[in-house]
Structure formats: structure tokens, C-alpha cells
Amino acid sequence: MSEKIILGIDPGTNIMGYGVLQVKDNKPKVLALGVIDLRKYGDHYLKLGRIFERVNGIIAEYLPDEMAIEAPFFGKNVQSMLKLGRAQGVAMAAAIHRQVPITEYAPLKIKMAITGNGNACKEQVADMLRRMLHIPQEDIGKWLDATDALGAAYCHYMQMNRPQTEKKYSSWKDFANKNSSRIKGQ
Fold this sequence. Notes:
The protein is α/β, with parallel strands linked by helices. It is 47% helix and 20% strand. The protein has one domain: Nucleotidyltransferase, domain 5. It has helices at 44-62, 78-97, 107-115, 122-132, 137-140, 144-160, 172-178; strands at 3-10, 15-24, 27-37, 66-70, 102-105. It has a 5-stranded mixed β-sheet with strand order 3-2-1-4-5. Helix 3 packs across helix 6.
């Protein structure tokens, strides 16, 4: 496939980020970057309905081939985690409704793919994406949730381009045993 469009989603219950990445001839380009502002909705169920409507609308507008979504991290507040999981689930349901395949990525994996550091802050992720994708500073905006979503899409793009190896290893020890001739000192 010479062209692919990836929708990235950073789930949130107050601000949900989205980023749309076009990959043409293996070159990524930002098509859209924004947030779904849910703060004006007091009722959690109204927020969920709005998430479904907006994600469905974004899918209708950009026709992504795939969705990359950030997996929720484990927090101490169970109620917050439950609400965040619902928001993520509704965004995923919109993609399923439109028959868009979904891949979930842990925040650490996204940060590693973008910055090389799994503990990078949102600002570092945004700055690296701005540099790699040539995004003007003024287009970054004040909501880093949008660049987090774009980070999920970019991480998915990076995973698409990973070379597939024939050999599968269950551990470093398994690798060492199967590749003893390649290891120095053997």
C-alpha cells in the first residue's frame, strides 16, 4: 500500500486528543491535529456520547485505514480509571462501528518510539514530533493531548516499518543460545 492514513487518539474525559497522520511513499505528514473539548458537558454520559459523535465525524472526514490509541495507564483513583476506560472504549466503538482496525499502545511505548525515553514528558514528545514532522510551533497549540494522540499515530507508523525477522526468541538467553556464533567471546 503506497498510502495509509492513521488516526491517533489520546483518550480523556475532559480533553481527548486526536491526530491524523498520512503516510505516502513511506513519508509521514500531519493531516489534522486537535482536541475534543468535553469540559462543558457536566454529565459523564453526555461526554461519552459526544466522544462517539466526534470520533465518528473525524473518521468520516479523514477515512483512516487504522486507529492507534493510547492505552490507559494504571492510576490510584479507581473512579478516574473507570471513566477514562469508558472514554477509550467509546472511541474504540466508533472505530469498530466504521470498521477501522485498532491497535493499542502503552504510553511508555509511544514515548520510547518518539523520544527514545519512556519517561519523557508531554512537552518533550510534542517538541520531537514538531521537529520530525515539521509542524510549525503555532500549530502545536496549548493542548498537549493532541500531540500525544499524534504520538500514538506516529508510533503505529514506526511499528509498521519495523523489519520482520524470521527467527522468534522467547528471551535473551534463547537469543544467545541460537546466535552463539555472533556473540563475542564465544
